[in-house]
Amino acid sequence: MSRCDIKVVLLGSEHVGKTSLVLRYVNCRFNADIPYQNTVGAAFCAKTVRAGDKDFNIGIWDTAGSERYEAMTKIYYRGAHAAIICYEPSSVASWNRLRHWLQELRTVEEDCKVYLCGTKKDLLDSGYVSREVSQDIVATYSQGLCGHFLTSSKTGENVDELFQKIADDCAADLKLMKEVEDLRVQLAKDEAAYRVKNNNYCIC
């Protein structure tokens, strides 16, 4: 049986680069065609990360950004320990929509840790696009949340740092860690019972 110690959900409007962010973190690669593909419902990936002196399995749910899938994607918020809300600094529309995603999340998981993620930093750095969302606005809105990162899935800049911050914050949360340990104990018991059942099974 597999386990997911820390559940992370990605939220944000379509085409802001959520799927590219996950693929860069989990598989260390970038696919230029991904931004033009829509996620339906949610996609799942997992990776093991070390925080403190322990290894944790992070389960990442990449949710659809299209409005027509909103009723479906809400179910993936339940049980989330952390959420990354993505926006494009070059798109004020994606920033305005960010507030909606936060409100939706809070109706399902009020205590979920929230991180803001500005995507496609490489496009800003190269001058290919211009910033529409001021840094002052982002800094003000980020107050009270768990952090803000400006990332590039193409170069990998700040991607690992974002997920490591999530893992470190979760590892420092004593209540969450007790839940993780309780789940590990229960899964170990279930695995032992499963092995006993199968070892005792015979065909006569």
UniProtKB/TrEMBL annotation:
GO function terms (MF aspect): GTP binding; GTPase activity
Record keywords, A-Z: Nucleotide-binding
Secretion signal, residue range per the UniProt entry: none
Gene3D superfamilies: P-loop containing nucleotide triphosphate hydrolases
SUPFAM superfamilies: P-loop containing nucleoside triphosphate hydrolases (SSF52540)
PANTHER family per the UniProt record, alphabetical: PTHR47978
Family: Belongs to the small GTPase superfamily. Rab family.
Protein name listed in UniProt: Ras-related protein Rab-24
